[in-house]
Amino acid sequence: MNKIKFLKILVFFYLSIFSAISFIGAADILPPDLSIKSISTVQGVDGRYLSVGVLPTIKIQFSEAIKQATLTAANIKITGTRDNAGNSRSSTVALNFSYDSNTYLLSITPQTNLSRGWLYELTISVGVQDLAGNGLANERKVLFETLMNKNTVNQFTAADGKTQVVIPPQALPEDASLNVSVVVGGVRSGAVPRGVRPAGIGGFNSYSSLQYVLPSALEEATAKLKDVVGVFAQEVTIREFAALNQNGNRIQSHFNTPITIVMPYLDEDSDGYVDGVSPQVKVKNLKVYFLDESHNVW
């Protein structure tokens, strides 16, 4: 009889422990995550979105419910960092915020039209918090560029900081964005442009950042040129230029008026020879070629 009572007490004791444990929950200590939805249909080699309109709606998808009081201009900013004339800027954009607590989706819209041909930076700081008060693990940034106005002068500087394009008024057939890929040459390996992948030899970089042309097309064109010119036909600097319309498609027509393109080469010791090429090439013998994509010839 005593044994039966002991078993009943023991069972009750275990059930009480299990019941107590089942109500204990872990505190939420994980930071929220987010993804920034595509701002346009096309991106440059450095990740910037191109061909963006002047009044875009930018959508941010959070991984969990967010404390709405932290979705403010103090924690989420859009700043104009470069104008259409190539000048550095620091112009803050006034924003409207719309947050859906059911889907955790935040929509951001400028209160007024953005400037055309400007580079903008969206920054989402760690001050954005979930309902438990956890902030983002890391600050998030994304670049986007609005369409150039074809009726004004526009100047573009590529990721290497040296390649430039100056487009006078009416030169473009329509409003456009310019995408310039730094493919090879003109930059030392210690100064790799942002957004490109170094694959150089002997300290001189090949960036392999072609977007619209196959590398085999360049190889074929260079081989054909060497058949005519010889071993001195070397790729000193290669840049890929593309003008993109509002739909992100390449503009294939000619410019209406001449534009100016500046491309770098290296001669850091000023000896009159291009650095990093073999056999040596004199600076005065450099020539500019463009790729005929129909026949793969320079």
Evaluate the radius of gyration. Answer: 28 Å
Quick one: biggest sheet? 6 strands, mixed
Helix-strand category: alpha+beta
Taking the alpha carbons of the first and last residues, their distance comes to 103 Å
Oligomer class: single chain
Question: Could you report the average pLDDT, rounded to the nearest whole number?
Answer: 86
Helix content: 10-25%
What's the order of the H and E elements? Answer: HEEEEEEEEEEEEEEHEE
Stretches with pLDDT under 50, minimum 5 residues: 6-19, 195-205
Biggest sheet strand order reads: 2-3-10-9-5-6
Task: Please provide a written account of the structure.
- Strands 2-3-10-9-5-6 form a 6-stranded mixed β-sheet, with no helix packed on it. It has a 4-stranded antiparallel β-sheet with strand order 1-4-8-7, with no helix packed on it. A 3-stranded antiparallel β-sheet has the order 11-12-16, with no helix packed on it.
- The protein is elongated and about 70 Å long.
- Mean pLDDT is 86; it is low at 6-19 and 195-205.
- The longest helix has 20 residues, at 2-21.
- The protein contains 2 helices and 16 strands.
- With 298 residues, it is an alpha+beta fold.
- The protein has helices at 2-21, 215-229; strands at residues 34-36, 42-43, 49-52, 58-62, 76-82, 88-92, 95-100, 105-110, 119-124, 140-146, 154-157, 164-167, 177-188, 204-206, 238-244, 260-262.
